[in-house]
Model the fold of this input.
Amino acid sequence: MNDKVGEVLPDAANEAKLRVAGQPRITEKEVSPEGELAFDAVFEVFPGSKIGDLSSVEVEKVTCRSQ
Done:
């Protein structure tokens, strides 16, 4: 089961445009079509973030001198 899950889970996550964070918790479904493996995968995903236009942002550089 681990081999099959390892083959299909990354493809399914990529297809859904998910960035999986950590290891998924896999549970095999009790009912599945004959000759097929059905499972649930529970996992966390990295949040999506977009950085806006920073061309007009001013940044102040602060320095500290030790005495």
